[in-house]
Design goal:
This protein is of the alpha+beta class. The protein is built from 3 helices and 7 strands; from the N terminus they run αββββαβββα. A 4-stranded mixed β-sheet has the order 4-1-6-5. It is globular and about 40 Å long.
């Protein structure tokens, strides 16, 4: 059991931007922290099909697979499972439909990925995924 607990939780994560450049974050029921939409992959499931399934379940939207651009793989402390790490394969992508909170998702927030966020954001998003998205989008902040 301990070896199982030591392995990171493997997920896929989406960075969905609106026309104003804001990105969508979600908050699970019972959590105070906002995270990227997405979730755990099933055994043998490839990343993009897993992401499409999770976005449909959580937000009721359809992933535009042709728009998906891999931002990288990132690891940080899991906010919803203390003592665990989470490892995400993150993708910038577009979706069809209007996102709405479904399943375990309680709240949505559209935030400026450069900050300040205005909501409590998970370290995986704040320190890794959002900076990777900003670099991809050419919006990285210049050093002060």
């Amino acid at each position: 059991m301990e070896a199982q607990h030591a392995r990171p939780i493997c997920i896929v994560a989406a960075v969905i931007a609106d026309a104003d450049g804001r990105v969508l974050l979600v908050r699970k029921r019972g959590s105070a922290v906002f995270i990227q939409p997405g979730g755990k992959t099933e055994p043998g499931e490839a990343p993009l099909p897993a992401l499409a399934r999770e976005l449909d379940e959580e937000l009721g939207v359809r992933l535009d697979v042709s728009s998906a651009v891999r931002l990288g793989e990132f690891e940080a402390d899991a906010v919803n499972e203390p003592g665990r790490k989470v490892r995400a394969q993150a993708y910038a992508c577009a979706v069809h439909g209007a996102p709405a909170a479904r399943a375990e998702i309680e709240e949505l927030a559209w935030i400026d990925p450069a900050g300040p966020f205005g909501v409590r954001v998970a370290p995986l998003s704040a320190a890794h995924i959002l900076p990777a998205f900003l670099a991809f989008a050419g919006r990285a902040k210049a050093p002060a």
